Amino acid sequence: MVVPFYMLIRTRIGESKNVVHETLKIEGVKVSHSVMGNYDVILYAEGKDLEDVRRIRDAVFEISGITITETVVHA
């Protein structure tokens, strides 16, 4: 079973491109974009199950420059 989800990420000023670069290194992250609006980065990822979603989310949390995230699992 594949669990698709998005992460909406706010970064410190000037960190969005680095965050995009680093998130793309994480297994399961398919797309990561720097955007303008309420969030600075939006990524799409696929986990094998909810535990894998947690693994990916936790790996994103480790990236320097991130201030706030919101995870949205596809229904």
**Secondary structure: number of strands:** 4
- Largest sheet properties: 4 strands, antiparallel
Order of helices and strands: EHEEHE
Number of helices: 2
What's the overall average pLDDT, rounded? 97
Rg of Cα set: 11 Å
Would you summarize the structure shown here?
The protein is of the alpha+beta class and 75 residues long. The chain is 27% helix and 40% strand.
Features:
4 strands; alpha+beta; globular; four-stranded antiparallel beta sheet; 2 helices; 75 residues; single chain
Can you give a write-up of this model?
- The chain is built from two helices and four strands.
- It is an alpha+beta fold.
- Strand 2 and strand 3 form a beta hairpin.
- The longest helix has 12 residues.
Q: What's the arrangement of secondary structure elements?
A:
Blueprint: E1 3-11, H1 16-23, E2 29-34, E3 41-47, H2 50-61, E4 66-73
Antiparallel strand pairs: 1-3, 1-4, 2-3
